[in-house]
Amino acid sequence: MAEIEIAGVMRAGAYSPNHIGNDAAIFNAAADELRKRGCVVNIYSEEQFRERDIKEDVVMNMCREQASIHKLQALEDEGKLVINSGYGIENCTRERMTRILLGNKIPYPDSLIVNTNENVTEDLKKAGFTSCWIKRGDFHAMHKEDVSYCRHPEEAQEVLHEYFYRGIKRAVINRHLTGDLIKFYGVSGQPFFHWFYPFDEGHSKYGLEAINGKSRGLHFDEAYLKDMCQKAGEILDVKIYGGDCIVDPDGTIRIIDFNDWPSFAPCRHEAAPYIAKCVLAAVKEWKKR
Q1: Which pLDDT score is estimated for 205?
Q2: The CATH number of the domain covering residues in 180-264
Q3: Could you tell me which of 16, 96, 61, 104 has the C-alpha nearest to residue 282?
Q4: Beta strands 58-61 and 111-115, pairing class
Q5: How far is CA 244 from CA 11, 174, 283, in A?
Q6: Comparing C-alpha atoms, which of 139, 93, 134, 129 is closest to residue 113?
Q7: Residue 113: strand pairing partners
């Protein structure tokens, strides 16, 4: 497959909060695996990608900047192969993700989607929300303050207005779920799937894992977890993915976050070959068109 030339677009540092090194490591590892398989992978920064006209017909990327996403979508519309899809990356922004997952009956917390200048205290009480999470709806989380745990509706109202004053116009409010927090990583169409308890392993981006605390080892169906995440990836149009879910005491599993191309930090060496295989499988299908 020496004829395959791939543009590899790194993620801008501003969109890798507390994970710049980890994001770069998994991306470079995947690029190296593709080179081992005869591909040419030309690496670009996200800024270089936005400013240049790339010649490659295959784009492997970790983009998050809005202008980059729009360029990826334009390249897809022109017929280029883009992994992850620019449309899939956009689908992982909070409001779109919430609507898509709930609309397709993927297990997900009860949620309200609101304008940040609204008064939501009574709506939260009417919906039976006590503790909850407020998350910016328009984009991926870039700062710790973009995801906020609230102990009661009155606190949620205060936090929501803080989002408004920060210039964030839309937010998603998720009901807080009690149970074991699990982090997962997967690659579409590949046997690779990895999950673990992030709090127990000391794995954290913002320290919010402490809200659910140490896992209790609640029993759940691991095959169902993998199938559910794979289905969510297909629905969201994301081939390289990760996220978080909560296992209830009765074994019920709900996705609470789903991300396009996460860091794979605890399993990057295992994941990288499968990411390369996923890209090559997509290239093979694309060439048939």
Answers
A1: 57
A2: 3.30.470.20
A3: 61
A4: unpaired
A5: 21, 14, 29
A6: 134
A7: 172
Span(s) in the chain for CATH 3.30.470.20: 180-264
For 136-158, the pLDDT digits (tens) are 988 765 567 889 999 999 999 99
Say what the pTM is: 0.91
**How does the average pLDDT of the chain come out, rounded?**
92
Nearest to 117 by CA among 175, 155, 171, 153: 171
Residue ranges of the chain assigned to CATH 3.40.50: 5-88+267-288
- Supply 20's token pair: 């710049």
Checking DSSP bridges between strand 180-187 and strand 240-247, what pairing results, if any? antiparallel
Write the single-letter amino acid at 148. Answer: S
Going across the sheet that includes 81-83, the strands are 40-44, 5-9, 58-61, 81-83
Structural fold of domain 110-175: Dna Ligase; domain 1 (3.30.1490)
The third-level CATH classification (topology) of the domain covering 5-88+267-288 is: Rossmann fold (3.40.50)
